[in-house]
Structure formats: C-alpha cells, structure tokens
Amino acid sequence: MNYFITGATGFIGSQLLQRLAKRPGDIYILSYDQLSDDRLNALIEKHSLPKNKFHTIKGSITEPNLGISAEDTKAFTGKIDQFFHLAAIYDLQADEEDMMRANIEGTENTLRFAERINAGCFHYFSSIAVAGQFRGWFREDMLNEATGLDHAYFATKHNAEKLVQETATIPWRAYRPGIVIGDSKTGEAD
Which homologous superfamily is 3-175 in? Predict the structure, then answer.
C-alpha cells in the first residue's frame, strides 16, 4: 500500500505520518519548499521513523497538477492506494484571497491530481466550519443547510468540501475535526 499526503508537516499530518510509518508501503509527501523538507526531516528524527519510507515530491496545491511533472505523474498512476489532502489555510485571520486559493483551488487541484493518477481513495480533511453558524447536529448530507457562511474560512472550507462531494470521480472520504487541541494520549500540541 502506498500513500500520498499534502500538508504532512502540520499537526494532524504529523500524527498521520507516525501511524502510516508503521504500515507497509511508501509515503509520498508534497513539499513546497526547504522549510517543508526541514520540518519533515525533524519529524522523522523526533519520532525515529524509518527514513526510507518517505519520499518528497516538489510541488504546490495552488498549481494545476500540483506542479508535478508529466513524467512523475505517469510514475504515480495506479500506484497510490490512499491519497490524504490536509494542506489548507486554517488561520481565521488569513487573507480571503489566500484562503480561496489554498482551500478551494488547492482542493480542486489536489482532487484532480488524485483522479489523474487513479488513487484508490481520496481522504479530504475538512472542518466543522463547513456548517458555518448552523446550530445542532450537522450530517454529511446537510451542506446546503449551512448558515452564516459570511466568514471566508467557513465559506472556503464549505465550498471545498462541496466540490469534493459533488465532483469526485474516485472514492472519497471527508473528515471534519471540530477543534484540535493535542494528542489524546501524550498531550502533545502544536
């Protein structure tokens, strides 16, 4: 089993990496700059993860085909079983244009790449923000019932998940964390 991950060095991504490292297969990580590479290497060292399982691929969620070459795209085709998309802007104070580019366009670029390489399953890390200001139980099939999407973060996360739900041509799953405080066992926080 092989994995591809965007946003691997964030808090949730780093927790995911530790768990995936225990499974058979290789882990491919979209890396957009040296800082991203340095964070990954620090995580590998900190948690004594097997370095040979991790492979960085230069690119960006804000570029079509994630900025990955046609040759590399061909090499990935049919070889990625689980594709995890965690990269996004989660900062409520961020610029609206940056949120749109990362959260909506980035999700579309990532989903289309996962489809192009025929990934087995697209795992989209969304947010409870897709519900906006809705009060009460908010199910997967209730996106059209969201209220109070005036804030750019709520709107971009809502529209990105809607894009996945309505246009994905490969199997997918969406995860909606409400708030992430830290690891439930160790208390580690970012």
Answer: NAD(P)-binding Rossmann-like Domain (3.40.50.720)
Average per-residue pLDDT in the chain?
Answer: 93
Going across the sheet that includes 172-175, the strands are: 54-58, 27-31, 3-6, 82-85, 121-125, 172-175
The pLDDT assigned to 179 comes to 77
DSSP letters for 95-161:
-HHHHIIIIIIHHHHHHHHHHHTT-SEEEEE--GGGGBT--S---GGGGGG-B---SHHHHHHHHHH
Domain ranges of the chain: 3-175
| CB-based contact 174:124 (threshold 8 Å) | yes
Q: In a 10 Å sphere around its CB, with 0-12 CB exposed, 13-18 middle and 19+ buried, how is residue 184 labelled?
A: exposed
Long-range contacts of 35-41, Cβ-Cβ distance < 8 Å, separation of 24 or more:
36/9, 39/9, 40/8, 40/9
pTM of the shown model: 0.93
Q: What are phi and psi of 140, to 5 degrees?
A: -60, -30
